[in-house]
């Protein structure tokens, strides 16, 4: 490939940046510049970096002096954009962490409510069981049975201070309502746990992509991806190759 003239190489690079495919991004030029002196000179061409600057940072090309180095301008604009994205990333991390703390707090409240309702359910179930024994003992008093058993059944009935049938009906209603409350707490706990897991996954994704532009709206993201799909993929990651002068 060394026999190809500079003009042809420069044209190849221009097509790679401004062509319909637009496969070359700033990292490619930086990688090319460290291969040899010739490619370092070719990759520093002002027109190449001008195309990258106008494509990746359109707002930066409005007022640029004609004798400016577009590579230096691209580096300055890239670093400034990187700082902005890092600040937006920190804000997003804090926002998601706050959401995780809120979900955790709600889960703890649900668990406390569930514990109280479960204790109420168990006490109601125990009282209902005792009253059913009283009703059975009251029914048993109407039939003949040995005096020892009869006196025991009579003692159970006398210990009840409220009518068994009335109280049993009320406890059955309380038990039914308690079951519904427990089912509601279980559903709320499941939903809140799902939201907590989703927020944790979002936090892991946000921390994995610190340079993603979190301030962009969905429409602007779509427009940018249509313009330069591959450049967006590289912007998500911190460059491993620095801009060489």
Q: How many strand segments?
A: 0
Major beta sheet, specifics?
none
Give the helix/strand class: mainly alpha
**Which strand-content bin applies to the residues?**
under 5%
Helix content: over 70%
| Number of contiguous helices | 9
Low-pLDDT stretches are 216-241
Mean pLDDT over all positions: 76
Q: How widely separated are the two ends?
A: 25 Å
Overall 3D shape:
rod-shaped
Q: Rg, please?
A: 37 Å
Helix-strand topology string: HHHHHHHHH
Please characterize this protein's 3D structure:
The chain is built from nine helices and no strands. By secondary structure, the protein is mostly helical. About 11% of the residues have low confidence.
Summed up, what is this model?
The protein is mainly alpha-helical and 245 residues long.
Which helices and strands, and how do they pair?
Layout: H1 6-18, H2 26-33, H3 37-43, H4 46-56, H5 70-140, H6 147-159, H7 164-208, H8 218-227, H9 229-235
Helix pairs in contact: 1-4, 2-3, 4-5, 5-6, 5-7, 8-9
Give the tags:
245 residues, mainly alpha, rod-shaped
């Amino acid at each position: 490939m060394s026999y190809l003239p500079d003009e042809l190489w420069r044209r190849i690079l221009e097509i790679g940046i401004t062509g319909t495919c637009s496969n070359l991004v700033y990292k490619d030029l930086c990688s090319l510049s460290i291969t040899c002196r010739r490619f370092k000179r070719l990759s520093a061409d002002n027109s190449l970096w001008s195309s990258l600057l106008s494509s990746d940072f359109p707002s930066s090309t409005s007022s640029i002096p004609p004798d400016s180095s577009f590579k230096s301008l691209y580096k300055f604009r890239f670093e400034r954009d990187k700082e902005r994205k890092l600040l937006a990333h920190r804000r997003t991390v804090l926002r998601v962490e706050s959401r995780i703390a809120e979900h955790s707090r709600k889960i703890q409240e649900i668990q406390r409510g569930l514990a109280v309702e479960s204790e109420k359910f168990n006490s109601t179930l125990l009282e209902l069981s005792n009253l059913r024994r009283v009703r059975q003992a009251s029914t048993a008093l109407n039939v003949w049975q040995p005096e020892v058993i009869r006196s025991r059944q009579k003692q159970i009935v006398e210990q009840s201070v409220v009518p068994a049938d009335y109280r049993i009906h009320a406890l059955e209603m309380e038990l039914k309502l308690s079951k519904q409350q427990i089912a509601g707490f279980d559903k709320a706990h499941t939903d809140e746990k799902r939201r907590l897991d989703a927020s944790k996954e979002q936090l892991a994704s946000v921390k994995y992509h610190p340079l993603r532009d979190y301030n962009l709206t969905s429409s602007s993201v779509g427009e940018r991806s249509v313009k330069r799909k591959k450049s967006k993929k590289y912007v998500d990651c911190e460059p491993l190759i620095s801009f060489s002068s």
